[in-house]
Design goal:
Elements lengths: L5 H4 L4 H16 L7 E6 L6 H13 L5 E5 L7 H5 L7 H6 L11 E2 L5 E4 L8 H5 L2 H13 L2 E5 L8 H6 L4 E7 L5 H13 L4 E7 L11 E5 L2 E6 L5
Parallel strand pairs: 1-5, 1-6, 2-4, 2-5, 6-7, 7-9
Antiparallel strand pairs: 3-4, 8-9
């Protein structure tokens, strides 16, 4: 595992406590419904979505829940690097193969107890077409029978349509925004685009804001049931 997995390496660190707070907020929002699937995405690359999704997955696994993180950024996925596993058989390989393939053969264990990973797989020529297939729906149904929490690490929305396809299929969506980079009008547009396809936004995580030594995180405000949370990313 890389040092990016701070919640696994330093579970009592202040930044790990921040992720636990984020986990609690998500659990609270889902308490009255049986929501299992969530998509973590961002507008642009390098805003920290893979870091957020991997550490959030660890905190859910630490509660005893069976968790799987799916690297759905089939163009530039990096969850295999974060968790230190091979990317020989992943999501793209499973979706592009025949119906007889067993999904379990593509899922990898991680060093974190209760946490499993489906890597991005080999770079395909048609990621969007793979995601829009019926096999993706069947895959999600299969995973829901086995896992308590299913987290998709999606591609940036400004580059490709992959995450917008997934937004229609998951129970909730978390948007990662970068402090002093992501524009408010970009978030507004993404919000409208997600709502247009029927997606449900759970919240926005504000990432890469320099924090004083006195506090690692602070809560911002509520707007349309979206909680703004500041996250300090040590690894980026």
């Amino acid at each position: 595992m890389k040092r990016e997995l701070v919640t696994a390496k330093e579970p009592k660190a202040p930044i790990s406590e921040m992720f636990k707070t984020l986990r609690t907020n998500i659990q609270f929002m889902n308490s009255k419904s049986n929501r299992k699937t969530m998509l973590v995405t961002s507008i642009s690359p390098q805003e920290g979505k893979s870091w957020i999704s991997s550490n959030l997955a660890v905190t859910f696994a630490q509660t005893g829940k069976r968790v799987i993180i799916i690297d759905a950024d089939m163009r530039k996925g990096r969850q295999n690097v974060i968790f230190g596993v091979q990317n020989d058989r992943g999501l793209s390989d499973y979706l592009s193969r025949g119906k007889k393939d067993d999904l379990v053969d593509y899922i990898k264990e991680t060093e974190v107890q209760n946490l499993f990973l489906l890597t991005a797989g080999k770079f395909p020529t048609n990621p969007s077409e793979l995601l829009v297939s019926q096999k993706t729906l069947k895959m999600i149904e299969q995973l829901e029978e086995v896992f308590d929490i299913i987290i998709f690490d999606g591609a940036p929305t400004s580059l490709v349509t992959d995450s917008m396809i997934l937004a229609r299929l998951v129970d909730s969506i978390i948007i990662v925004a970068q402090y002093n980079k992501t524009k408010k009008d970009q978030l507004e547009k993404l919000k409208k685009d997600i709502q247009h396809v029927g997606g449900k936004i759970a919240g926005v995580v504000l990432n890469k804001k320099k924090c004083s030594k006195k506090g690692i995180y602070e809560k911002y405000y509520y707007a349309d049931n979206v909680q703004m949370v500041k996250v300090k990313d040590k690894s980026l």
